[in-house]
Amino acid sequence: MTKDEKKVGALINKGTKILGDAFIENNVAEARHLMMLYMDKDLASIYAMLNEELDDVTAMRYMKAIKKRATHYPLQYITGFTYFMEYEFICRENVLIPRFDTENLVLKAMELSPDRNIRVLDMCTGSGCIGISYQLMREEEGYDDEVYLSDISDDAIKLAQDNAKALGSRVRIIQSDLFDEFTKEDGTPRLGFDMILSNPPYIRTKDIYNLLKDVRDYEPRLALDGASDGLAFYRIIISKATEFLNPGGFIVLEIGYDQYMDVAEMLRENGFKHIKKQKDMSGLDRVVSARF
Which CA distances in Å does 48 have to 42, 52, 70, 149, 282? Predict the structure, then answer.
């Protein structure tokens, strides 16, 4: 690179164009965001340094990240983090990236939580963003809840552990295929829960191929694929939840935009009451809650 090409402003402009040509929707913001990351500066500082020349290593690292993002490799995997409920969560390959819409699930869980210490299970936890955020928020309110996180994935368990440690969360993390590790040899529950939370895989198999390239090609299919009708995990979780929930306990689930009626019917068939849905910022059904 020439000296002019290594100037902060020139690099951002080049990065913006490369991302735009690759049809990255937020190309301007992402080009700036990556510069902030590699310069370790805030945006105001970046603007004040547009005519300054970067060293060779930083300039090359920036352009390498831009070119990687241009393949639609997720930004959060490049930066290594994202924000969820205002907490910073580590992000890594092979684990689903926390979504803004999933914050609705945590907010609903907080709304339903009683004024006492309770035991909670966050199933299919992935990065741990749901259970960890919930535990920390409840702790801030003065409660000492017993919060369990579970997932079948080795990568998810390790990432959830790292996020819990980084954020100082006292959650308990157990690797389990749904309820398996919470079940005794005789088939009875090892523990009863006052609330079960889950954002399970719910994309129909045939719809996986219609997802954004960022998701389809790079995020784990294990965390996305809900089988042919997208409802496979709800059937298991809802039917087994009746054995693990304490009387009066709640279940709170993230759902696909067109799955409320099917999931609500499953809940009714399994004896749940007070079934309610909550929409996301786009006006789509996103969370369903019910009481046992």
Answer: 10, 9, 26, 44, 36
